[in-house]
Specification:
Elements lengths: L2 H5 L2 E2 L23 E6 L11 E3 L5 E8 L4 E6 L4 E7 L2 E5 L6 E5 L4 E4 L5 E5 L5 E8 L8 E2 L1 H9 L2 E3 L5 E3 L18 H5 L6 H8 E2 L1 H7 L5 E5 L4 E2 L4 E7 L4 E5 L5 E7 L2 E5 L2 E5 L4 E4 L5 E5 L6 E7 L11
Parallel strand pairs: 2-3, 16-17
Antiparallel strand pairs: 1-23, 2-4, 4-11, 5-10, 5-12, 6-9, 6-11, 7-8, 7-10, 9-15, 13-14, 16-18, 18-25, 19-24, 20-23, 20-25, 21-22, 21-24
Length: 321
């Protein structure tokens, strides 16, 4: 593969194209300033305005959320796994029917593998624009988003209605639900009663990995962060490894499926049979299947990188208490 061909599979942080109308809470005060990014895969946006950078199926989706301070993403759930790592800023994640069952604060580099079956939201509690990177299980990203009932109700009060066809309709623009299309059904009390309310103490040990801990663990060899035998044991359809300067190697390897490289710190030189490229924090690179490649830091200083590859497992861990 030539450098020009591989460049089409690299999304530079500075080239990311945001969508400010991606979800039902785009008009809701407190959530109306967030930006959504679909980097790899179809994503879960409810808006036709969402730009997809790389549409090639990988067995998972890569996205991102950018938000100014005090901006939040409303309570929602997916049918498949959702994992986040913090690229920039300081973030509070919260979960439960009303978002008060538990919470955790994540710093830069920390990763949170959120089990399906619970509503979750997040907000930027830092002092500057923040960015979190997301991994969603499956090529269809779980078939969309399930919103907490109050999110749907709040959105309607501010002019946005989600149709049962999965599309948003803005009443402020005189948009109406098409004939034969009703509004998205709100979860019943019976359905909501089945959803667990795990506490912070329940969630933290098995679902959050801290950046500094991973840096220490990956000083000699890469550490598996998410996987059947990972720090966060799960089979969500993908595995996530964490690599540092000490555990990087120039020896090339291949995968039978596409893999993704996402630098967290430092600049990384990726070599493959046919060329090389340098990645910076926030960049995302999709390496084609069966292409021999390696990744090593290209400059001195702190260096860390997340590596994601599909495994074809089911949706992932549903919260079981």
């Amino acid at each position: 593969m030539t450098p020009a061909e591989m460049e089409t599979r690299i999304v530079r942080y500075g080239d990311l194209q945001p969508c400010k109308t991606a979800f039902i809470d785009a008009h809701t005060p407190g959530s109306d300033q967030k930006e959504n990014f679909t980097i790899i895969g179809g994503g879960v946006s409810e808006s036709p305005d969402q730009h997809v950078h790389i549409g090639i199926p990988h067995g998972f989706n890569i996205g991102a959320a950018g938000q100014p301070p005090k901006c939040r993403n409303s309570l929602h759930d997916h049918h498949t796994a959702e994992a986040f790592f913090v690229l920039k800023g300081r973030w509070r994640f919260f979960w439960g029917r009303y978002g008060d069952a538990g919470e955790v604060t994540l710093e830069e580099g920390d990763i949170f593998n959120i089990p399906t079956g619970i509503f979750r939201g997040f907000e930027n509690i830092g002092t500057d624009y923040g960015m979190i990177m997301a991994i969603l299980g499956g090529d269809d990203a779980g078939g969309g988003v399930m919103w907490a009932p109050q999110v749907i109700q709040d959105a309607a009060e501010h002019g946005l209605v989600l149709g049962e066809d999965g599309k948003l309709y803005d009443t402020k623009r005189q948009q109406k639900l098409p004939a034969g299309v009703g509004p998205m059904a709100v979860m019943s009390d019976a359905e909501l009663a089945k959803r667990p309310e795990p506490t912070t103490r329940d969630v933290l040990p098995n679902h959050v990995a801290r950046y500094l801990d991973m840096m220490a663990l990956a000083d000699r060899k890469p550490v598996k962060v998410i996987g059947e035998h990972g720090l966060l044991r799960d089979k969500p359809g993908f595995e996530v490894d964490f690599i540092t300067r000490g555990s990087a190697t120039a020896a090339k390897h291949t995968h039978k499926v596409p893999s993704v490289l996402m630098p967290m710190r430092g600049h990384w030189r990726v070599d493959w049979d046919g060329g090389s490229a340098t990645l910076a924090p926030g960049d995302t690179m999709s390496v084609p299947e069966n292409v021999a490649h390696s990744a090593v830091p290209s400059m001195t200083g702190e260096a860390s990188l997340y590596h994601i590859v599909a495994t074809g497992d089911p949706a992932g861990l549903t919260w079981q208490g």
